[in-house]
Design a protein that fits this description.
With 203 residues, this protein is α+β, with helices and mostly antiparallel strands. It has two domains: 2-149, 60s Ribosomal Protein L30, Chain: A (2-Layer Sandwich), CATH 3.30.1330.130; 163-195, no CATH class. It is built from seven helices and nine strands; from the N terminus they run ααβαβββαααβββββα. It has helices at 2-9, 14-30, 51-59, 102-112, 118-137, 140-143, 187-195; strands spanning 41-45, 68-70, 77-82, 88-93, 144-149, 163-164, 171-172, 178-180, 183-185. Helix 1 packs across helix 3 (51-59), helix 2 runs parallel beside helix 5 (118-137) and helix 4 packs across helix 5. The longest helix has 20 residues, at 118-137. The chain is globular. It starts with a helix and ends in an 8-residue tail after the last helix.
Length: 203
């Protein structure tokens, strides 16, 4: 499964490793062993970084099925619900987990800014791989706090016929539209009208 996560994400990195370890911990706490073929599991992630790709691979939860939800909190955290058992669990990275060492952090800045030379990129990849394997080898409970979630399980994905937006004419889910002066508008047209810009209608 680690290989599948790596292939899906495109490379090996500490963030993906945290997603792998954290998701396996959440699944174990829920006593779930099967990936979601439909919407049996629901995943709520709190960032849009590398972590979440492992969540999708290991749980089978995806945006397309409507059982993969994103809250833009910037946290390495996952709440996983089981419709089979009615239970939920949240795993979140512990505050005391050691941060990247200063050399690794400084090289990351250089790589991201395009200022790293060949030797620095090679050293960064070495430290990146080392940190990844340290995470994979660690006890998951030394990295993540886990808590039972008693809140309601998110509703199943809504399916409905699309209707044309009165602004751009593009087919849109009615439940995602807002009422405008000339009828129902997609959110993009509604935002454009508020900013004084018009979206170009379909020909």
């Amino acid at each position: 499964m680690w290989q599948r996560c790596r292939d899906f994400h495109g490379h090996v990195c500490p963030g993906l490793a945290l997603g792998y370890v954290g998701t396996l911990l959440a699944l174990a706490k829920l006593r779930e062993i099967d990936r979601a073929e439909d919407e049996d599991l629901v995943a709520v992630v709190e960032s849009d970084a590398c972590f979440v790709d492992a969540v999708q691979v290991l749980t089978g939860c995806t945006f397309g099925k409507g059982n993969f939800l994103h809250k833009d909190y910037g946290k390495i955290a996952l709440t996983l619900f089981s419709r089979r058992s009615g239970r939920g669990v949240r795993v979140a990275l512990k505050g005391e987990v050691p941060a990247w060492n200063p050399e690794h952090a400084e090289l990351l800045k250089k790589v991201m800014n395009g200022r790293a030379d060949e030797a620095e990129r090679a050293r960064f990849q070495e430290l990146h791989a080392r940190r990844t394997w340290e995470i994979l080898a660690a006890d998951p409970e030394s990295l993540f706090d886990s808590t039972t979630v008693d809140g309601p399980i998110p509703e199943r994905a809504r399916m409905e016929p699309s209707e044309p937006c009165s602004g751009c004419g593009e087919p849109t889910m009615p439940s995602k539209m807002v009422t405008g002066p000339s009828g129902l508008l997609c959110r993009a047209c509604a935002e454009s009208s508020r900013s004084g810009q018009e979206r170009r209608p379909l020909p």
